[in-house]
Amino acid sequence: MNPLRMLLEVLRVQFKNNWVREAVYRTNFLTAVGVDLIWIAIEFSLFGVIYANTPTLGGWTQDQVYFFLGVFFSSDALFTIFFQRNFWNFSDLVNRGDLDILLTKPVPPLFLILTRWINLTAFSNFVLGFGILLKYAGPAGFQGGWHWLSVGFWLLMGVLSAALIRFAFSIWIFWTERGFAFSRLYYQFFSFATKPDTLYPKWIRYLILSALPFAFIGSIPARALLEGLSLRESLMVAGVLVGFWIFNATLWRAGLKRYQSASS
Amino acid sequence: MSLSQPVIQAQRVSRTFKSVKKKEGLRGTLELLWNPEHQEHRALDEVSFEIEAGAFVGLIGANGAGKTTLLKILSGLIPATSGSARVLGEDPFKRSMTFRKSISLVMGQKAQLWWDLPALDAFDLIRAIYEIPEKSYRERLDFLADLLDVKALFQTQIRRLSLGERMKMELIGALLHWPKVIFLDEPTIGLDVLAAHKLREFLREFNSREKATIILTSHNMEDIERLCSRVMILKTGKILYDGKPQGLIQSGERQLKVSLLETPDLPAVATLTGLAPEQLSLTSEDATEEESKPNSNHLWISLTNDQIAPTLQKLMSRYTISDMGIQGQSLERVIKSIYETESRETGSKA
Amino acid sequence: MRLQWRWAALKNGLLEDAAYRVEFIIGLLGSAAVPAAIQMVLWYALFHVGTGETPRTEIAGMTYSDLIAYTLVSTLFTQVRGGDHDFDLQEMIRSGSLSNYLLRPVGVVEFIYLRGIGGRLFTAGLCLVVGAIGMSLVGMDPTRLFGAMALAILGNILHYQVGAALATTAFVWEEAYSVLMVKNMLVQLLSGELIPLNLFPEKWAWVWKSTPFYLYVFGPTQYALGKWSHWDLLQALGTAGLWMLGAWLLIRVTWGLGIRNYSSLGQ
């Protein structure tokens, strides 16, 4: 059978298994939605307070910022649904040596790891975020029409970027037992993603568009949808993503090698 | 690959790894930063052997002797530091897809199935991973489930099964792709007598029917005695013995138990019989409580077959014997004594 | 004697933190630098970046330098507030490892707090030093920092107390993680960590005034910057004390009920 079909079949079974009675990973529905609601409310209030004092901020109107928040929350929710728990388990897998069994399987272990869990409850968070996106699309000046097709594409870019960055922060578990410092750092830098990138002074902006591309999660997709990206920017985005992919693949191979040499 | 070529070949396989020595206290921590002292640990030391297809081999050794390391090298998880290993004609560490589809590794204490799932769903994932055709999958599943008698439990979450039942499911999951080589690391650990027995029967059946090559590590002598046609004893990374289990016992010792009318003085007995003092003992693990009491006048003597008659003669010349018995050595005792002999000879602590 | 186990817990916790030195420092830098950077970016955008109109000189009575000063000084106190040991408590309840502690002759809530406070106190000292140096360099009066830090430390205790009381929901629901997360997010906003509380429009001021959270960051910062008088500080200290007393009572009640529930389940 051709390898792609095999991977798709494995993916199908992995997803199917998430729906099996008692195996479903369920966080408390109400609290999951509650936490996200509060988070959104706080971001909204923050901008609300600021916009009470000024009509635009860094070139963004209030509606446009809210549209950005909708895009960001949707992307983030998608990441939570498909990847968050898998990354969270990753350090345990390595520390406890459970990676061994996965290495004996004729499927890339990373594929098995990243497709294992789906957080179904977070779907409600996606609905929330997407609802905000829809509500403020018009007032923000989103052109609509066939542009709606690109929303899916840019949300996908957002999730992919989030996954690539998260991976780059998680991979260090191969070299240090105490990976939690990197996890903490990730969440701290993540706050940069909650504001549109044009607000930041040049050097921070450059940082979050390249080495720590948190801006790709919400800000770039929002800007792409509202006014489109210049060719230069599009190339840069593609370049950074490809670069990150290569960087991660290299680190994964190196990490695996170290894992296997260090094992007794 | 021709039938005559051994399925597993190891040539002077060694595995060492470095660990950092940390001394106590703050000073030790600081030293770690600029001048860490490494110590080398030799897990395997120039191990060589060949295994034919269909063999059932047992690996015995104390914890840290290198059994798990050897299994990990043969299954491709870790590289050998020197020497070469070949399994099914390939270098295991390359972990080619064909290699991975032909082998199976079961570690008694680690799960390979997702425990939150019912067994059937976990097996479905295995089916997808190994691309097992639907028809073969169903047939094999039925065959294995019947042999292990677990069909009724397929819909239950694995986490909720007893240890024995879980182990059976793990085994089924490990065999669904009909591997040619199976590595089992302590499969009966923690199982009760009945469950372990059932598992052994199953493994024996599978090995004889399917001619799969099986390497088993275990602390449980029953496993080794009942299943393995060949036994390798590992100690501190070296193979001490490689051959039939029966060979161990034949070359081993017998135990002579003698009841006297008086408490014997061991050094005197040693001089009388010409045996070494270590061969004589006033107690034994097999002794009952009564027999272990001091002044119970029992004497246990470890000796070879041909030493029995002369020793008895010499004893009877001085003592009155009220009772006696001869026991074969169990595999366990033989192995223990091999260990202790080795320690004595090398002068190192076990 | 009663003091001994407390001292041991403190020392133990500090040693543990010291073992994870690198993580400690990275964590500190991250939690201090990033939020401060984001805040300053907001002020920068508000005052300088393209409104197209004449750049404003003040917002809600604060100038650009006022806001920068607020950001920098509040960072000192934000480091003292946190510590997620209430999460430890709820995890212990959820996983059942609370049982180990219930058998010991010490109060578990207090024990967990003392074990975690060592690192925090060290951070507080560090912030004092850094702040004193920084403020003197800029020509501000550093002595107020001590009074401010005292309030911040009370805030730290109160923050833990609130968390400890909320953690008891883990006795009833499966987990209190989300509740504590919500609490932390609300505290972030209402303590003055995200923005100075006087930026809030007048009609919403009652929101932050009705919780004690402003005592964690906003209060100490205002006093250190000279916006609050000594009398204001004393009042704040008194208010904090009252809240702490109330929280202490709440903990006694909730934990008493919770443990009874827990033990009866035979975990």
Report what the structure shows.
With 264 residues, chain A is mainly alpha-helical. Chain A contains eleven helices and two strands. Chain A has helices spanning 3-17, 29-51, 62-95, 99-103, 109-114, 123-140, 148-170, 180-190, 202-209, 219-227, 231-262; strands at residues 56-57, 60-61. Chain A has a two-stranded antiparallel ribbon. Chain A is globular and about 65 Å long. The model of chain A has no long low-confidence stretch (mean pLDDT 87). Chain B has 350 residues and is of the alpha/beta class. In chain B, the strands form three sheets. A six-stranded mixed β-sheet of chain B has the order 5-6-7-3-8-9, sandwiched between helices. A four-stranded antiparallel β-sheet of chain B has the order 11-12-10-13, with helices on one face. Chain B has a three-stranded antiparallel β-sheet with strand order 2-1-4, covered by helices on one side. In chain B, β6 (181-185), α7 (193-210) and β7 form a beta-alpha-beta unit. The model of chain B has no long low-confidence stretch (mean pLDDT 83). With 267 residues, chain C is mainly alpha-helical. Chain C has one domain. In chain C, 75% of the residues lie in helices and 1% in strands.
